[in-house]
Amino acid sequence: FQDQAEQFFRSGHTNNWAVLVCTSRFWFNYRHVANTLSVYRSVKRLGIPDSHIVLMLADDMACNPRNPKPATVFSHKNMELNVYGDDVEVDYRSYEVTVENFLRVLTGRIPPSTPRSKRLLSDDRSNILIYMTGHGGNGFLKFQDSEEITNVELADAFEQMWQKRRYNELLFIIDTCQGASMYERFYSPNIMALASSQVGEDSLSHQPDLGIGVHLMDRYTFYVLEFLEEIHPASQTNMNDLFQVCPKSLCVSTPGHRTDLFQRDPQNVLITDFFGSVRKVEITTETLSLDRDVAAVESKFPEEEVATEPLKYAEQLPVAQIIHQKPKQKDWHPPGGFILGLWALIIMVFFKTYGIKHMKHVF
Amino acid sequence: GAMAAAELLVLLLVAAGPGPGRADSGRERRDTLREELLLSPLPTGDVAATFQFRTRWDADLQRGAVSHYRLFPKALGRLVAALGVRELHLALTHGFWRTRYWGQPPLQAPAGAELWVWFQPTVTDVDKAWKELSNILSGIFCASLNFIDSTNTVIPTASFKPLGLANGTDHHLLRYAVLPREVVCTENLTPWKKLLPCGSKAGLAVLLKAERLFHSSYHSQAVHIRPVCRDASCLAVSWELRQTLTVVFDFFASGQGKKDWSLFKMFSRTLTDTCPLASQSKVYVDISPKNKEKELLEVSPPPTSVHEAVVQGDRKTYAVYDLLSPSLFNTSRSLNVQLKWKRPQDSSEMPIPTLHAQRYVGGYGLQTGEICTLIYNTHPYRAFPVILLETVPWYLRLYVHTLTIITKGKENKPSYIHYQPAQDRRRPHLLEMLIQLPANSVTKITIQFERALLKWTEYPPDPNHGFYVGSSVLSALVPSVTAMKDVDVEQSPLFTSLFPSSDGSSYFVRLYTEPLLVNLPTPDFSMPYNVICLTCTVVAVCYGSFYNLLTRTFHVEEPSRGGLAKRLANVIRKFRGVPPL
């Protein structure tokens, strides 16, 4: 009992966030969108609400004209599991998924008019899960076939987050070719990283579906999804089990992980610390009585002004009014400095050349 | 122990909860909800379903601090109050309404996202409010409306007059933008459904399931907010929020042989109960006979009543199912309206709508092109005017001197033209014309353009897909076949009170043409990399060679004694009598 109580207070976070990014465009990269949506589904199922998830999908697969079953994205062949679901909320869509927007979301340097659902409003007691998938190489990840993010930029972004106290602990998962190169350069504390393949290896896709015509998932995320389907909000599975997911016999590539920057032992870190959501509930025994008098609230309505004559609707196509709409009178502006200077120069040259006696012909 | 305490607290809250409600039930509610579904079979065998959810709030959102929101969603109410919005119309559409084959739509929207807003005269900086509004709406509806900026916003001068109460129409308070590339999917439907008072759990909204709605030829969801008359005397203002969703189910996509339709076949579910917050909940089925002959369509179960109305200038008959009447759910717990054709349809019976239009791109190559619009007036003897609004992005440089409007072989001069040329990277082209369409004619409007070469950083990640030109808008007062009487808005169905009617002899219709997809000349994006490699190689080879020639010094090298192998070889050669190496 003592151990359980201790464990309840061991992790120092009070809220959970997730940033899930799919960086690939075009129909044949269906599996990257399915990867991201399966992590989204697990994270929602384990308790993180939509307001705490920033989902970035670089292309639309569900309503793509090539999708034979619209509004669905499947992860298992024979259409067993629709990871798109019925209440998905995508925050960054299509052309909005760029390296700049991703780094702005992480570091919090967002233009002031950005709505709340597009911001990562984490604090120093937040555990953040960052999942990225797409096409990558040794030291970079490709965004939408037109730009890349390097491992150095990513490490610097995490350092900015650390210095601005934007996370308590961070779990970084990446499923691309040569994924381990992306976490090589991290230097900020409290980061744990997992990748689907080592440097020099490719991450492979799992199974194609002949009805849809593309590969549905990548191998690493497929086995991670199967692992996560067994987790429920109260499970005690720890990170060491996640490191064992997808050995080389199933994945063909060798998944890697990095825990040297993390302060706690992975044995003591629960999966739900990052994939689930903390709800610290305080039980109270005192009673609250709600205000029964709603009339007081309603009477605060200011008295409305009643018009003296009836208001009317506008005419939808007032032909006479439109035809007689006078064009705006163009105000006469005095000629600008350049024009004046040019004419002054021309006149000076003329009189210097031909002499002053021509003045009387001008005026 | 902890669980029991939590349960106790929850019970106490629940006990305290209904208290204020009970005290309130005797007083008049200030907001009402009406919901309605209209099923109209289309001439081609498809069926169109239009949902309308109307929340009317008898309060003035503009003045006073309103803090108690009941049916009217708080997100939209606060938006209207904070940004000084008088009217807001946002539509997200996937597909295209084929007016020529399907008839006039009740309310059409262009493909992609369309947003037009009238602001209150008290707003000083309309552009700033417009930018903030599009950002907030992009967060609410999960759409990329934040891409609306000055490069795709226009200020129409003659179209888009306010649909609600207005005392003055200064068009500088109006902004219109369309994003033709916008995709509509479940993530846009989810927040739209969350704005409904009953959500998607009760009433007509249980039919709205994404998997069926997006497997269709046309899906359009819209939000309209406007001030309306509170009653017939129209001395006070109420705010109305209409959420409309139109979907056309394709006969061929459904894969069945027969053209019969039912709610279950369309939505894969049936109606089971009503939304307890709705004061009216009805299903209308269009059973109007074509060509004034006997009925073509049979509906089952038998409707609660039959309603006749003049809609879009024509007399139409509707079978009405009132979900609030107790007799409807007496026999069975669910209502599955079925439509069966009594006799097979003849393709020659397809009526042609009075006004329809078409637009396409002409020309060849990647330098020039031509936008052609064809407008058809099929009325046998009446002519009427139409306003055409075209918004063309700046990278298609229009040549207005090539604008020609030809009707029946002769030139047709418009009575009003407003043209605002584009500014590169700042403003699009705006062309508005008021054209008189003679009876039974085709009008062809052509304008030539030249394609611009963008800077290489301005291309989107998939430039070979092409660039979209938004739909053009046609607003017209079409003469009605039957005169329309002035009806009370509260008693008539919602689909008849979309546009305020002025006189019964004509009805207002707004049509959209197809969006266009043009290819711009795109560079080879691998060229910067190629150029850098080539230049570096050339520089390295030339400069390196010169440097070597200029700075290399030569010196004589002592011949080495040779390694072990050479010495052994020399020993063998000495034995052979051959000169050493």
Task: Give a quick set of tags describing it.
heterodimer; A: 363 residues; seven-stranded mixed sheet; 10 strands; B: 581 residues; alpha+beta; Immunoglobulin-like; 2 domains; eleven-stranded mixed sheet; five-stranded antiparallel sheet; 19% helix
Please, could you describe this protein's structure?
Chain A has a single domain, classed as Rossmann fold. With about 375 residues, chain A is α/β, with parallel strands linked by helices. In chain A, the strands form 2 sheets. Chain A has a 7-stranded mixed sheet. In chain A, strands 5-6-7 form a 3-stranded antiparallel sheet. Chain A contains 12 helices and 10 strands. Chain B folds into 2 domains: about 30-340, no CATH class; about 355-485 and about 500-520, Sandwich (Immunoglobulin-like), CATH 2.60.40.740. In chain B, strand 20 and strand 21 (about 430-435) form a beta hairpin. Chain B has an 11-stranded mixed sheet, covered by helices on one side. In chain B, strands 15-16-22-18-19 form a 5-stranded antiparallel sheet, with no helix packed on it. A 5-stranded antiparallel sheet of chain B has the order 20-21-17-24-25, with no helix packed on it. Chain B is α+β, with helices and mostly antiparallel strands and about 575 residues long. Chain B is about 20% helix and about 35% strand. The chains are: A alpha/beta (about 375), B alpha+beta (about 575). The interface between A and B is large, with 66 and 81 residues. Chain B: Keywords: Signal. Chain B: One of its GO terms (biological process) is attachment of GPI anchor to protein. Chain B: This is PIGT transamidase. Chain B: InterPro entries: PIG-T.
